[in-house]
Amino acid sequence: MPREKQNFWRPDKEYKGRRGYADCGEDSAVSVLYSGDEKGERMPGYQITEYCHRMIREHIKEGDCCVDATAGNGNDTEFLCRLTGADGKVYAFDIQKAAVEHTRKRLEEAGLSERAKVILDGHEHMENYVRETVSAITFNFGYLPGGDHQIATQADTSIQAIEAGLRLLKKGGIMSLCIYSGGDSGFAEKEALLSYLETLDSRTFLVIVSTYYNRQNHPPIPAFVIRIKEERGE
């Protein structure tokens, strides 16, 4: 059954057409909780978008390099560009041409085009483009509303991308993962991602998995990986 017809966290009219299921950007559709098919209520101050961005802000300074691994409509790309400033660099990846075009247009309208490189390629290939260590990497799994629902993140390439991102992540850097479940491949991907995160070496990475514990209908799961030491040395 298509996600729009299910009783999940869904976009309201204000957010239609933006990356909701798969983006935890500044104005993402998943920031609205729906308890029924037609009506819902906002959760001011407790939106997944705000929660993720608060965590990310603590790990970025001007001039840093960051990665938006799932560009979508450019919400997180713009957010990272503003944090890293004029001397920073942001790499954004998406496999959909429409998403890349939307992101580039958003950055152009915001006057931020020079701060980002938007790449039409799978995020599992990020190491082919990013040569420096990075302070933050954002992942928002799923598909792009308004796009082809058959084009969605898959567990195998998602884990490959996480592994690539962790190799790029510098000490003190953070990886943000917005994990969704329900419908399509969401449940299988969620379980695979959480199982993978559990295997990360606790001496090298701090893994934080949050949950909207008393919310029903499969709310999104914000997770964070922070590198606390280098692979070798300290």
What share of the residues does DSSP label as strand, in percent? 15-25%
CATH fold annotation: Rossmann fold
| Uncertain parts | 1-43
Number of separate helices? 5
What is the string of helix and strand elements? Answer: EEHEHEHEEHEHEE
- How many domains make up the 3D coordinates? 1
How helix-rich are the residues, as a percent range?
25-40%
User: Mean pLDDT, as a whole number?
Assistant: 81
End-to-end distance: 50 Å
**CATH homologous superfamily descriptor:** Vaccinia Virus protein VP39
Major sheet characteristics: 7 strands, mixed
- Backbone structural class: alpha/beta
By CATH, the architecture is named 3-Layer(aba) Sandwich
